[in-house]
């Protein structure tokens, strides 16, 4: 994935973030209208709900496209995580074996000094 497409992807995700903020504002606006002592203005509630639903659909589409493009990229194919973890596990095993051998050596030394 080149730098240009990464920037474009980040821009799209930033737009999704802004849309999510707008969706929350719309939900808050509907809640305010519903709690209005004089009763909700139906046209405003309908407008907010329609914009809310369209925004949710836009967010879903954009996120699906971003997920699909991320899957096509495969950023982990050169990742050394598995090799590093394998090495760490081997080191832990070796440290355990060394501690056991040290314990055996100590026991042997104690046995020889007691004889």
Provide keyphrases for this structure.
single chain, 115 residues, mainly alpha
Strand and helix layout:
Blueprint: H1 3-34, H2 42-73, H3 81-114
Helix pairs in contact: 1-2
Question: What is the gist of this entry?
Answer:
With 115 residues, the protein is mainly alpha-helical. 85% of the residues lie in helices and 0% in strands. The longest helix has 34 residues, at 81-114.
Structure report:
The relative contact order is 0.08. The longest helix is centred in the last third of the chain and has 34 residues, at 81-114. It is built from three helices and no strands. Helices cover 85% and strands 0% of the residues. With 115 residues, it is an all-alpha fold.
Question: Over all CA atoms, what is the radius of gyration?
Answer: 31 Å
Helices, by number, come to 3
What is the oligomer described by this structure?
single chain
Query: Roughly how many Å apart are the termini?
Result: 71 Å
Percentage of residues in DSSP E strands: under 5%
**Class derived from helix and strand content:** mainly alpha
Estimate the mean pLDDT confidence.
86
Largest sheet: none
